[in-house]
């Protein structure tokens, strides 16, 4: 009986620790999204290089040119987003979890929407380029 109570106490304590495990903050989730998209940038550049020699005056050549333009626009969108994000938040807020003001919490909500749209834009441009190249 005493062992059962001790075992129950241990399980209760362990469950308590697990249930209090901190889930990632909104900033951490946003930074994870950024990191996932950034990891795709070398592939984006590679695809531009693969498409470029295929551009000509034919209809298919123009499709390659449009895919290149979409990839380059995605890259520019990423650079623009990073610059704007960096102007709104300090490194401590981004990387060390420094508390945000009420205004910055609202900005963070806006940035989550932006990074989600950016992720979609980049993924779409890569997918379209890969389909054109039949990769």
Description:
The chain has 135 residues and is an all-alpha fold. Helices cover 81% and strands 0% of the residues. Helix 3 packs antiparallel against helix 4 (59-88) and helix 4 (59-88) packs antiparallel against helix 6. It is elongated and about 55 Å long. The N and C termini lie far apart (65 Å). Mean pLDDT is 88; it is low at 6-20.
What characteristics describe this protein?
elongated; 135 residues; mainly alpha; 0% strand; single chain
How would you summarize this macromolecular structure in one to three sentences?
Helix content is 81%, strand content 0%. The protein is mostly helical and 135 residues long.
Topology:
Layout: H1 2-19, H2 26-38, H3 41-51, H4 59-88, H5 91-95, H6 102-133
